[in-house]
């Protein structure tokens, strides 16, 4: 189909501004990061324009004994980030799915109120909410006092500065991201289809597996992706609730840019995160394409 | 004939959102013979869909029993009942193709792939969709979706098929075609059909018997012709087809209309209502005893095969008649006389308040 001049102008008018914006403020910085990740760090911060692949070597394992050493800790932190982000996606999914189901069956007035409640945490600063979790989780916090109060434990348990605290905090922060796409796909679910399935002999479990799950899969995939991406790169939650013990890749990148002032290495780490996310998006695209053809 | 489905004194009440009680089923009893096509007919809110859902198991009864082939089903959950449903808006699984939809019951039952494929092929042939296995639901027209829903419900060989206003979304021509096909399929398979509709024509066309429901109660269960010609009460007479309902006073041997005309009615004295169907009235004077109505033509409607006439009479108000279109075309405003034979007239033992 060929576009007429008029249509082309129309399209340009509509898409021109956001395209220019994204080119300058999104694509531009990304290219800078990509270029920096192959340069050598300057002595006083900044970059020297000398090509180097050793920023990636430090992460992935080819060593240069002179300046940059391979240290498996970066890869370990990267894998831990992947693990914690995956756990966060899983727990948010487990919490959000039944909730979305339940809310989608409410009367309209109540339903809108419940959705408002889900988005309510957005109205309070993230930092404040995370410090509230510190008060809950610390050795003298509400949780430990409660547990000792009812006699379940005799000594405080270390909740704070553990993987548990980080996953808990990220789940808490990202639940709305998981909930909303889930809700929109569950709400569209035709209840008559569930009855039809039961009518045709399926138990509740079979109906869930064969009808509900496939029908809501777009919401599950969508919610998982938009939870996973910010969870993977998150550095606020691990720095408040994980302390120095539970570093995530986001903290590492932040340190490289702000404390260590090794911009090329920070860029290389960021590119690693980008690559992981891109791979994930491609997988998602493949999955949804296959879903459409099935 | 052995009874195939038996509903015994079914009762069901719902709570309304305002906190009141809505009685949906008020002591309904109904028997279905093997391979019988029974239609539940009634206005919306009469309880017909609720009754269907108690048979399929989606609603539980407050009291009473549902018995299928001699086995009480009251405690049996929907997925273990030997009945399948064709839903009003089909409720097809839109993430599956036609073949998986039709084969769903067999897939759930764990049959092997080859058997499922054969059965799906048979079912699609039965409903006239041969070769459409791979189509996705969204690619089908409304009529085709209807056929897939039917095939899906029949694939698991149910003892009884329930149909919840399945044709209401189709246009008129397609609906008539499907009515005939449904009837043929039912006769071929030899299983019982319970069909819910609010469309009286549909009910008359397809059913072996029609159960007229109103206010959670069965008004009458009869074959269509009996129901049409000899309705038991005013509701049925009025709901099924057009009718002229005239009050008559009985004296034991004769009935007298309010304008003084009489006809033979050897039954108990009292008040009753005479049912005169519009098509029993005409301009030709019948032989033997007759009833005549003179008045001015107020309105005529032409429908292709006949003219409907509204006659304004002094004694009875509006009298409706239907005459064939190739007869004399009446003019609005003319004074005419319509006649009906006065033999075999049907009286209803009930008078309008």
TrEMBL record, chain A:
The chain crosses the membrane at residues 12-39, 84-103, 115-139, 159-183, 211-229, 265-285. Pfam families: BPD_transp_1. InterPro entries: MetI-like, MetI-like_sf. GO terms for biological process: transmembrane transport. Residues 78-284 form the ABC transmembrane type-1 domain. The keyword Plastid does not apply. It is a multi-pass membrane protein. GO terms for cellular component: plasma membrane. Gene3D superfamilies: MetI-like (1.10.3720.10). It is found in: Cell membrane. Keywords: Cell membrane, Membrane, Transmembrane, Transmembrane helix, Transport. It comes from the Bacteria. Belongs to the binding-protein-dependent transport system permease family. CysTW subfamily. PANTHER family: INNER MEMBRANE ABC TRANSPORTER PERMEASE PROTEIN YDCU-RELATED, INNER MEMBRANE ABC TRANSPORTER PERMEASE PROTEIN YDCU-RELATED-RELATED. This is Spermidine/putrescine transport system permease protein.
UniProtKB/TrEMBL annotation, chain B:
GO terms for molecular function: ATP binding; ATP hydrolysis activity; transmembrane transporter activity. This is Spermidine/putrescine transport system ATP-binding protein. It comes from Tropicimonas isoalkanivorans. Pfam families: ABC_tran (PF00005), TOBE_2 (PF08402). The keyword Nucleotide-binding applies. GO terms for biological process: putrescine transport. Keywords: ATP-binding, Nucleotide-binding, Transport. Residues 5-240 form the ABC transporter domain.
């Amino acid at each position: 189909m060929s576009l007429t001049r008029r249509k082309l102008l129309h399209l340009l008018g509509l898409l021109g501004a956001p395209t220019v914006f994204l080119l300058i403020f999104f694509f531009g910085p990304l290219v800078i990061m990509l270029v920096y990740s192959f340069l050598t760090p300057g002595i006083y911060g900044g970059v020297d324009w000398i090509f180097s692949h050793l920023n990636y070597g430090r992460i992935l394992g080819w060593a240069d004994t002179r300046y940059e050493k391979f240290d498996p800790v970066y890869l370990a932190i990267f894998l831990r980030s992947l693990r914690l982000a995956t756990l966060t996606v899983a727990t948010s999914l487990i919490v959000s799915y039944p909730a979305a189901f339940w809310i989608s069956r409410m009367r309209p007035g109540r339903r809108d109120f419940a959705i408002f409640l889900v988005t309510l945490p957005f109205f309070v600063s993230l930092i404040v909410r995370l410090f509230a979790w510190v008060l809950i989780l610390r050795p003298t916090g509400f949780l430990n006092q409660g547990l000792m109060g009812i006699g379940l434990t005799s000594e405080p348990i270390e909740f704070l500065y553990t993987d548990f605290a980080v996953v808990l905090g990220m789940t808490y922060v990202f639940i709305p991201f998981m909930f909303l796409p889930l809700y929109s796909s569950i709400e569209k679910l035709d209840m008559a289809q569930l009855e039809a399935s039961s009518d045709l002999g399926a138990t509740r479990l079979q109906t869930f597996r064969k009808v509900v799950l496939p029908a809501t899969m777009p919401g599950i995939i969508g919610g998982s992706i938009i939870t996973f991406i910010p969870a993977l790169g998150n550095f606020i939650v691990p720095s408040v609730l994980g302390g120095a013990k539970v570093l995530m890749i986001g903290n590492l990148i932040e340190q490289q840019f702000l404390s260590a002032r090794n911009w090329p290495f920070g860029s290389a780490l960021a590119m690693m995160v980008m690559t992981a996310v891109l791979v994930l998006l491609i997988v998602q695209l493949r999955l949804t394409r296959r879903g459409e053809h099935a | 004939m052995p009874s195939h489905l038996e509903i015994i004194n079914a009762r069901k009440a719902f709570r309304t959102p305002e906190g009141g009680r809505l009685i949906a089923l008020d002591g309904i009893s109904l028997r279905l013979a093997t391979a019988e096509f029974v239609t539940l007919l009634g206005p919306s809110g009469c309880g017909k869909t609720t009754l269907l859902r108690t048979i399929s198991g989606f609603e539980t009864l407050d009291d009473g029993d549902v018995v299928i082939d001699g086995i009480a089903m009251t405690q049996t959950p929907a997925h273990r009942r030997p009945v399948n449903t064709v839903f009003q808006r089909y409720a097809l699984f839109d993430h599956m193709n036609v073949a998986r939809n039709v084969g769903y019951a067999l897939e759930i039952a764990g049959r092997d792939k080859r058997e499922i494929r054969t059965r799906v092929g048979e079912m699609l042939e039965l409903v006239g969709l041969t070769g459409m296995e791979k189509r996705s639901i969204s690619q089908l027209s409304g009529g085709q979706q209807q056929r897939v829903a039917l095939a899906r419900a029949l694939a698991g060989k149910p003892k009884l098929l329930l149909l919840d206003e399945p044709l209401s979304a189709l246009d008129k021509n397609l609906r008539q075609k499907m009515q005939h096909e449904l009837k043929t399929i039912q006769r071929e398979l030899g299983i019982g059909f319970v069909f819910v509709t609010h469309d009286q024509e549909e009910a008359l066309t397809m059913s072996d018997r029609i159960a007229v429901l109103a206010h959670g109660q069965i008004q009458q269960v009869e074959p269509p012709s009996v129901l049409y010609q000899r309705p038991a009460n005013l509701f049925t007479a009025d709901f099924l087809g057009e009718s002229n309902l005239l009050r008559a006073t009985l004296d034991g041997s004769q009935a007298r209309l309010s304008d003084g005309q009489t006809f033979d009615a050897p039954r108990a004295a009292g008040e009753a209502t005479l049912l005169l169907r519009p098509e029993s009235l005409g301009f030709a004077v019948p032989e033997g005893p007759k009833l005549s109505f003179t008045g001015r033509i107020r309105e005529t409607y032409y429908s292709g095969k006949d003219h409907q006439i509204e006659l304004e009479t002094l004694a009875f108000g509006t009298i409706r008649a239907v005459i064939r279109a190739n007869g004399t075309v009446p003019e609005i405003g003319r004074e005419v006389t319509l006649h009906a034979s006065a033999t075999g007239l049907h009286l209803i033992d009930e008078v309008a308040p």
